[in-house]
Amino acid sequence: MMDIMENAEFQTQLTSIVETLAKTAVVEISKLFADNSSYLRLEISRFTSENESLKKKCRFLESELQSARKTAGKMNGTEAPLSRTGFNVTETAHRPEIDNVFGKEWCMNLWRHEESKSGEQEDAHLHSSVVIGEPVDLLEEEQNMIMIKEESFDDCSSETIEEDHENTNVKVVIQEEIRKILPELDSKTVQNVVNHLWFVVGVEKTEDLSLVEVSDLKDLMEPIQCRKLVKTFRQRESIGQVDGTAEKTLNPFSSIESLPEQSFIPHYPIKSNWVQIFHVPWERMSPALIQATTTGERARPGPRREFVRIVVAAMQAHCPNPNLSACGEVARTIVSTYPLTFGDISEEGEQIGNGFSCLQRQLKTRVEHVNRDVLEHRIRRPRKPSAKRAGQDDNYLVKRVRCKVDSYGCINWQPPSVPDGETAESLEMKRKVAAEIFQSAGPRAVELTNVEDLMHQTYVYQRHMINSCPPPTISEIEGHWPFLFTERGLCRHFKVLTGIDIRSRFSETLTVKSRRILNYFNSQKLKWNTEIQSLLSEIEENPSATDNNRNTISAILLMMKYFKEKDNSVFILADETSTKTSIENEISLPATPRLIMLGDTLLTSSKWFISIEGKVTHSIDDQLDFTAALSVFFGCFYVFNIEYEESASATLEFLQRFFVRINPEGSKCTSKSGTSRRTGTAVQRKTQNFNTRVATFMQRLSEFEWKTS
């Protein structure tokens, strides 16, 4: 009896286990199928879009091919009459050489296909010296293609009639200019020249004709004709002969010299100041968004993206490819109307940067997405070198400014005058008194009241030395102002400089916001890459350090992994028994500030130093915590006027905006070059008003907390 009961119990347990495994397998298979099917739908949609784009390109190239054949027929002395489906070419006609169209591998295959057709027809009609060929249908291989309906987007391409009309007017003006200069040219050649100038060279207004070179036209006309045309263009520009028709739709520049170092300009620039007359389609806002604007709440991600699509569609009715500046003006208008709903506002209600950077970037991203397969809307003309006046030196146009963003985020960067009752001699005397007190009493004298008064009274003298150009070395500053190299002395100076008590600010924000960051990463552990997952596992296995220190260090390290920045661009790990002298002798310290962590690992460190320009400058007292060390480290960038290093710029700006809440426009990193986080190669660094990676993370963190709250 007992055996039967045991067997029954065993079978029940086995059945339960099998059912659990089956359910788990079904769930996993369903997830896998959903992921793969979603990816498959995206791929199908993408390939369908690419096919549509190729169709448009093929139609354009087919028309170019017909024009080229006609031109080739005329050059050989024969006029090729058009037939119902194509045109005639001579037997000896060869494929024409046109830049950017022929000579490519796909084009060679196309001509081989055409020549094989011509050869077959020649065998059938040997008695004729003219081969009648049909035009090449570049789409004939796509007739049997299975078309899959693509998800529709709000392109509103039919609303670009006004822009096309303006472009047509400009083309007519350019065509008339060419006819006046070279009346001997036939209509077809003139039209080809105008199209070449517009689509290939990048001419967008009559003033741009003065920038055309002979090499731009050598493939379309004779050399003498090219030189005559270019010479006349430049002469007319120099004497200010600008056609009145173009002035109605364009904003002409007074001279070539007024265009120094132009940035990349879209192929369709802002014409007729459309941004000034642009009307934001408020009436098309969703009910959820209307509710948010009424109550002053933040726009939810879904309604916000929907409104961005609507606004971009309305913008493209005026300009198919608005540039970043135009998107910024529209974003500024939207944010100024509803700042609490659309603006870049921190959790504390403070404006971040200029207040509309995120919306500006979102609008521009949508524009590029809509135009991803429209080649003529994506063409950008190359940067043109600025002209130099006769007699100017080569270095005349060189911009001579200090490279550092000196006053970034500061409210008292350089006082305009000395305090009342003070002179340069009295300030120098007080400086010497403070230095003598430091020599006799040591760093702890910074707590004395008279030392605090001396440092406050000589603040203007300190800034005068630090802000001098060329800037002094850290050793020179330390020799004159040794109390700036103590924790309390530097934090006091930072408060006068920025208006923020950095110790108090970090104490308020580090603990709470660090836990939020840890929760964000822990709640989505499987989503992250292996480096972040390994760090999360290490954080769970090292609870020995104090909770506040560990959480803060962990949060910063996670952010560095998220931004794909190396730990050693902020932290340097040293042995727990290291001293200031041993660190300087044994470790190669970089020029930019570093936070030296003493301990077995970064997470378990319990003592800290700060180094600048290859030497240890600040030693954090043993009784102080990591908040004090981080305050001194971050404060050094402002007090000593040091830019963020490019390799840690995202992490430092995140500390600045998220924890310290300093939110000016621009960035404290003005490096022109950087390292690609994806490829590791040197790349040109874009100038940004608000670091996009920092903005994206802050937005995702807010959305995550809203969804999980």
Structural notes for this entry:
The chain has helices spanning 2-75, 105-124, 161-181, 187-201, 223-238, 244-249, 274-277, 287-295, 301-316, 324-337, 339-342, 357-370, 375-378, 424-441, 449-457, 459-466, 474-480, 487-498, 502-522, 530-541, 547-562, 580-586, 626-639, 649-660, 692-708; strands spanning 89-90, 130-131, 265-266, 380-381, 571-574, 594-598, 607-612, 615-619, 673-675, 682-684. With 709 residues, the chain is mainly alpha-helical. The chain has five domains: 2-142; 157-260, no CATH class; 274-381, no CATH class; 424-485, no CATH class; 502-708, no CATH class. Helix 19 (502-522) packs across helix 21. The longest helix is centred in the first third of the chain and has 74 residues, at 2-75. The protein is globular.
